Amino acid sequence: MAYLGLIFVSVLAYPTHPPLERTFVEVVRSQFASWDTNHDQILSRAEVDALVNNPAIRGEEAAAVATIKRLQRGKKATLEDLPLADLPKILKDAAPKYRSMVKKLSNLNQAIFSENEPSLIKIHQGPMGNCFMLAPVGSLVNLDPATIRKMIKVLPDRKVEVAFGASKILTDLPTDVEIAMGGRTENGGIYLNILEKAYGRLVASRKHSDVESATDAIASGGSATPFLQAVTSDKPKHLRLGPKQKNPDKAALELLEVAKMVGEHKSLAVLGTATEVKTKGISPKHAYAILGAEGSNIIIWNPHGQTYRPKGTAGIEFGYPTTHGIFKVPASEVVQIFLGLTHCAVPKI
CA-to-CA distance for 278 and 72, rounded, in angstroms? Predict the structure, then answer.
C-alpha cells in the first residue's frame, strides 16, 4: 500500500547523547544559577525561551527546560515564571513530562533522515497541538516520502532551508529542547522537528508575531488549510460533514471520490473533528489525513500514530481497529463522525 512506502536517504549524523540519570529537580537545582541570567532567583519566560533556542542545552538539561516550557505554554498553561523556591510545587506536573522527554532524547537519532525514512507508520505527534500541520505532512509522506526530503535543504553552520511551496524558510537546526517538545519518528531522524520549527517561523511571520520560540506559533492548534495552500499553491476546497450536513448520502459519495483521488496520488485530504466526539478512539478537535479508499471505506491516519482495539463491535460507538494510527471507516460513518474535509491538488515539488 502507498502509505507503507519507504525510501532510502543519506544520513547526516550528530553526536549521541550522554547518559540520562538525574531527576527533574536535581537538574533544575544544579543549573538554576546559570539559567537565571539576571540572578533574581526566578526563571522568567524570556530566560526559558533563551534556553529553548540554545543548542548547547542537551540531554537531561534539555528535557528539564522542555518540561518548564511545556508548563508555560498555551491556553492551558499552569506556570508563568518559575521561582526557585516554587520548584517542589510543580513536581507533580513536571516529573512525568520530564521522564517522557528524557526517554525520547536518550533514544534520539539526530540524523536528518535515517535510512528508509520518512515512514508514515513511524510518525507520532508530540505534546504540541499541531495536528493541523502533521496531518498534511502525513498526506505528503503517503503521496511520496521523497517529497519531504525535497523540502529540506541542509546548509552549513547548523542551518536548513525548508520549502513550503514558494515560501522558503531559513532556520537553525532544532535544539534538543525543541526536539523534546516536538513530534517523534521512532529513531527515524529529526526531519519532523525541522518541519515543525520552519513552519512555526512561517506562521509567525505571516501573523507578524515576534515569538522567541519558533514552535510557539503552532503549539496550540490551528487550521490545515494554510499548510496545504502553502505546500501545494492550490486553493483548498472544503466539504461540510457532521450533523449540519443536510445531504449525508451525497457527502459520502463526494468524500469517497476525494479519497480515491488521494489513493491515485492526485489529491491531499485532511479531516477534522468537532470539540466533542462520541466515537471511542477518535480524538476531538483533531486533524486526520485521508490515505485513500478501499471499496466503500475511507483509509484514515491519526498523527498520534497509536494502536487501538475497540472493546465492542467496530463502528461509530466503539471505534475502529487502528494500527500505527491507520484505520478504515465506511464513508457514510465518516460523514457522521467528522466535522469537515479539506482537500487540494498535489504539490509540484
Answer: 30
Residues 343, 337: Cα–Cα separation, whole Å = 18
What crossing angle do the helices spanning 24-35 and 59-72 adopt, rounded to 10°?
90
- 225-260 burial, b if ≥16 CB within 10 A, otherwise e? bbbbbbbbebebbebebbeebeebeebbebbbebbe
List 270's β-bridge partners, or say none: 289, 342
Q: What one-character DSSP code corresponds to residue 342? A: E
pLDDT digits (tens, 9 = 90+) for 192-233: 999 999 999 999 998 866 677 899 999 989 999 999 999 998
DSSP letter (8 states) at residue 81: S
Nearest CA among 54, 72, 321 for reference residue 177: 54
Q: What percent of the chain has pLDDT over 90?
A: 84
Determine whether 278 is exposed, middle or buried from the number of CB atoms within 10 Å of its CB (0-12, 13-18, 19+): exposed
